[in-house]
Specification:
Amino acid/polyamine transporter I, mainly alpha, single chain, 405 residues
Length: 405
């Protein structure tokens, strides 16, 4: 009885199955729930580009702008592709169902495996980066970063165990707070730099790159920055969580996701270039930009708090989609059938616990180091994108529906 009482205190009373339809998400909440991962990834994507370019010397940091423009173009292409996917597959499922329908079972299972691994990494990376934002503002907390990461995952897991709509409300405010903070920092930074309102910097802007940095290093920086694309798949996996018409609402969410992500990513990269920001020193690039724009006043801490919150809560994207994909695989008998069952609160409780355990294990093994975890993203993210888009190309060529060209 005592264990049952603790469970009810943490996750709430059971919900009737008829309540499931009322747990659907509107567009504004869905943008916060499903787009928090791709929106939050702009907080570390620029830093990953600069860390690779720094291997060729500080002069090479000037190449961050063309690399960022290339990544922004790729993000736009992926967004357009997934708008078509959610229209063609309003039942959701993402790369797994698209590949299964068009390419066959082995490619579909490959896409599913890549996605499940990336969802675990999303939790680990987002939480680790969020704690980095916290320790950048409060260096005294740095020795406790792993414990803080574990505590954050426990809080997020409990929030999701309470049910979809409650977790949606929990994540909406921090997401929009982050968007407003970053766009406000970028907008004021651009204006203040143009009119000379900023105090004199302690460092010089990056000199233009005079020598080639080598194709391999350039491409490595490009792939590192492509962490900005992570999470786009989440919307296509979670279409059924949206209010009707599900496909149309998912397309709108994807469009706004793309516009906001590209604006923030290019803005942060340009300010890092213009201000001569060099990564490292125990402080994130976003923290250095905010400190340059706002000093150490309340606006600086607002940006850091917003960044920390969105990165911690970006893990919610995985908690929304890892369980759904697992349940689809369980129904197809590729995972244990218990993973297809919803709990008392109409969420996949077993899968949420499994996801949390794997994410905590990764954080402990890698010591909460974001830069060590991020390279693990690359293969899985682009494998799922490639299989999904390859499946869509085959679908258009086979069915030749309206607008297929």
């Amino acid at each position: 009885m005592r264990l049952d009482a603790v469970k009810r205190l943490l996750v709430g009373a059971p919900m009737p199955l008829s309540q499931a339809r009322h747990e659907r998400l509107g567009k504004s909440v869905a943008l916060a729930v499903f787009a928090s991962d791709p929106l939050s990834s702009v907080a570390y994507a620029t830093e990953e580009i600069l860390l690779v370019l720094l291997l060729a010397g500080s002069a090479a940091l000037s190449y961050s702008l063309p690399i960022a423009l290339g990544i922004a173009a790729l993000l736009a292409i992926v967004i357009i592709s997934y708008r078509q996917t959610v229209h063609a597959y309003p039942q959701g499922g993402g790369a797994y169902l698209v590949a299964k329908d068009n390419l066959g079972l082995p490619p579909a299972l490959t896409a599913a495996a890549a996605l499940l691994i990336d969802y675990v990494l999303t939790v680990s990376v987002s939480v680790a980066a969020g704690i980095d934002a916290l320790t950048s503002a409060l260096p005294v907390l740095h020795p406790y970063r792993i414990a803080l990461c574990v505590a954050a995952i426990v809080v997020i897991a409990v929030g999701n165990l309470r049910g979809v709509r409650e977790s949606g409300r929990m994540f909406a405010a921090p997401t929009y707070f982050f968007v407003i903070s970053i766009l406000g920092m970028v907008g004021y930074g651009l204006i203040a730099a143009a009119f000379g309102w900023l105090p004199e910097a302690r460092y010089e802007p990056h000199p233009p790159g005079l020598e080639g940095i080598g194709l391999f290093l350039f491409l490595r920086a490009y792939s590192a920055g492509c962490t900005a694309l992570t999470g786009v798949e989440a919307v296509s996996n979670g279409v059924q969580a949206l209010k009707p018409p599900e496909g149309r609402n998912a397309q709108i969410v994807l469009t706004w996701l793309g516009i906001i992500s590209i604006a923030m990513f290019l803005g942060i990269t340009y300010l890092a270039f213009d201000f001569g920001i060099v990564p490292g020193g125990g402080e994130t690039v976003v923290s250095k930009i905010a400190r340059r724009v706002f000093g150490t006043g309340p606006p600086y801490y607002a940006v850091q708090i917003a960044t920390m919150l969105i990165l911690l809560l970006a893990a919610n994207t995985s908690y929304a989609d890892f369980p759904r994909l697992s349940s689809i695989l369980a129904r197809d008998r590729f995972m244990p059938r218990q993973l297809a069952s919803q709990g008392d609160r109409l969420v996949f409780s077993n899968v949420i616990m499994i996801l949390s355990g794997f994410a905590i294990a990764l954080l402990v093994i890698f010591g909460g180091d974001t830069h060590a975890l991020l390279p693990l993203y690359a293969i899985g993210v682009f494998m799922s994108f490639t299989l999904s888009q390859g499946g869509m190309v085959r679908r258009w060529l086979r069915l030749r529906e309206k607008g297929w060209r």
